[in-house]
Amino acid sequence: MKILALLADGFEETEFVVPFDLWQRGGCEIVTASIKNSTDVTGAHGLPVQASTTLGQANLADFDGIFLPGGGPGVKNLAASDDVEKAVCAMNDADKWIFAICAAPLVLSKAGLLIDRRCTCFPGREGELVCREFSEDRVVVDGNIITSRGAGTAEEFALATLASMTDTETADRIRKQVVAR
User: Fold this and answer.
1) In the chain, how many H helices and how many E strands?
2) Alpha carbon distances (Å) from 41 to 9, 44, 72, 178
């Protein structure tokens, strides 16, 4: 599995790093893409990251899925990008995996991808979602779209997405390897 992780200035570090790490341990390839023209991206708490590429340079056909980490400023930047909206819509049209955590499901909602879906998001932001059904579950799987609530759910989110992308045995192996809940 090859996943394109979209990074915008202000991304929540835990929501990016934990899935990145657990997915790689599970055999997935993660390519980081800045949504701006520069590959230099800074997290909400100051973590500098050098993305592998930019969204404009990435060929979506090369990927099995796309990942949007949350973080207030990061999600605001993701939602302001027409290229991000086009990318998530293209991935959905191709029935590829779409993963969003924290407030990032709002980007999917803005793109119209959650209208017929059950989903979750960061507490207090659910009023901004346009979806079939909002859930307070920590991780929600609805077809090819998986959403989660926030930094505290990053581990569960990463393992649930890994189980969906690969199999439960791989997710269980990684869970035991890192002594996850």
Assistant:
1) 6, 11
2) 5, 10, 15, 27
CA neighbor of 140 nearest in space, from 123, 157, 163: 157
> With respect to CATH, is domain 2-177 assigned 3.40.50.880?
yes
- Residue 161 region, left (φ>0) first, then alpha (ψ -120 to 50), else beta? alpha
Task: Please report, for the chain, the start and end positions of each structural domain, with discontinuous segments joined by +.
Answer: 2-177
pTM for the model stands at: 0.98
Give the Cα separation of 138 and 83 in Å (integer). Answer: 28
Q: DSSP class of residue 50?
A: E
Could you identify the residue written with the tokens 């592998």? 52
Whole-number Å distance between alpha carbons of 33 and 55: 5
| Average pLDDT, 10 consecutive residues per value, the chain (181 residues) | 98 98 98 98 98 98 98 98 98 98 98 98 97 98 98 98 98 98 86
